[in-house]
Design goal:
The chain is 55% helix and 7% strand. Among the domains are: 76 residues, Rossmann fold (3-Layer(aba) Sandwich); 85 residues, Multidrug-efflux Transporter Regulator, Chain: A, Domain 2 (Orthogonal Bundle), CATH 1.10.1660; 63 residues, Alpha Horseshoe (Serine Threonine Protein Phosphatase 5, Tetratricopeptide repeat), CATH 1.25.40.10. Helix 9 runs antiparallel to helix 10 and helix 14 runs antiparallel to helix 15. It is elongated, with a radius of gyration of 24 Å. With 363 residues, it is α/β, with parallel strands linked by helices. Strands 2-1-3-4 form a four-stranded parallel sheet.
Length: 363
């Protein structure tokens, strides 16, 4: 399956990766991202939408107007195209859809939904034994009254912790949560509830979506509160505190923004956008050495990060460290066609200054 040359609409958010990085990788892969689902050739179902895009009985209910000819694809499939994740290794896929449905007590529509959310991983030749075990576990939960959105969210939460439905047993707690069963008792996973809730059943994805909606409406105070809640509900996703930092910076609260960016970095040291934004913040606060270090961390993670290379080069030029700035500008010219003209101009200025310095030294 390939997306090259196609228009792709991402329904929901991809956890752990910023919009800038997704757009950059898509362009490099020959994929055209669109904000109009009606114009898309493919609709990517982000895992974050499972809580609201799936009915209690397992049917998809996408709240978008999309082209009926567009294909629906899973987040994992799309990530694999971008080079962000690998697809599961091929296994003995000897079970047909009818066999899985019969053994699990599920129908074809439900199996398709589970596959689109990467809970099941069928190949062209069929389903694997692990898919069969997971489907039977889901069938038992559904027969006992568990709702499909809860089941899918639970399965994805288990995957984030290196587990799967085929290897654990889940049960519904009296308050509606799906939790792990250990030695006959309901248990927590890694010291946290599998599906953390606050207030009236608001999870991290819903809080994040409300934060983004508040940002679009210009209500930055509400956006800050929703992002803060999302960050407390999801202790792993680095993009949530990263976005919180952006909102705090917009609100003129640089110290708090720095804390948020550092929280994002603590969660994911390879999040180049967090290093870059931290550098911009440090530079505005007059902490040039810290800013330079942050920019360097950003383009160490992403050697083609033109904005980080540019800011570091300009900062070095301001300190009259022209010889150190030149390699960064050359790196921009080789990595980014759109940024090359400005980098070429700055490189010319660096060479002029170095020549003048050499002439003055000879006098």
């Amino acid at each position: 399956m390939t997306f090259k040359g196609q228009k792709v609409y991402i329904y929901g958010r991809l956890r752990g990766v910023t919009g800038r990085r997704v757009a950059e990788l898509a362009t490099a892969t020959g994929i055209s991202l669109t904000r109009r689902p009606s114009a898309a050739d493919a609709i990517v179902l982000a895992h974050s939408t499972a809580g609201f895009a799936v009915s209690d009985a397992g049917a998809l209910r996408l709240e978008i107007r999309w082209n009926a000819n567009a294909r629906l694809v899973s987040e994992r499939s799309f990530r694999s195209q971008l080079g962000l994740a690998a697809l599961p290794r091929a296994s003995d896929s000897s079970y047909s859809e009818d066999q899985i449905a019969k053994h699990a007590g599920l129908n074809a529509l439900q199996l398709r939904t589970l596959s689109l959310y990467d809970v099941l991983s069928p190949a062209e030749s069929g389903y694997s034994y692990m898919d069969l075990v997971a489907a039977r576990a889901i069938g038992r939960l559904f027969a006992k009254g568990a709702k499909f959105p809860k089941i899918i969210v639970a399965a994805l939460a288990l995957e984030q912790r290196g587990m799967s439905l085929s290897g654990v047993r889940l049960a519904e707690a009296p308050w509606g949560e799906l939790m792990r069963v250990l030695e006959g008792a309901l248990a927590e996973i890694d010291g946290q509830l599998l599906l953390p809730l606050e207030g009236s059943d608001v999870d991290a994805d819903e809080a994040f979506a409300r934060a983004e909606a508040s940002e679009q409406e210009g209500d930055m105070d509400s956006a800050r509160r929703w992002h803060d809640l999302a960050a407390r509900l999801d202790a792993n996703d680095a993009v949530i505190p990263f976005n919180l930092g952006n909102v705090l910076d917009e609100l003129g609260r640089p110290r708090e923004a720095e804390i948020a960016y550092r929280q994002a970095i603590a969660r994911s040291p390879g999040l180049a956008d967090a290093w870059f934004n931290l550098g911009v913040l440090q530079e505005k606060m007059g902490r040039d050495d810290g800013a330079l270090s942050s920019y360097q961390r950003a383009f160490a993670v992403e050697p083609t990060y033109a904005d980080a290379l540019h800011n570091a080069a300009v900062l070095l030029m301001r300190k009259r460290r022209f010889e150190a700035a030149l390699p960064l500008l050359n790196q921009i010219m080789s990595a980014s066609a759109s940024s090359a003209p400005e980098a070429k101009r700055l490189a010319h200025l660096c060479r002029l200054e170095l020549r003048h310095d050499a002439e003055r030294a000879q006098r």
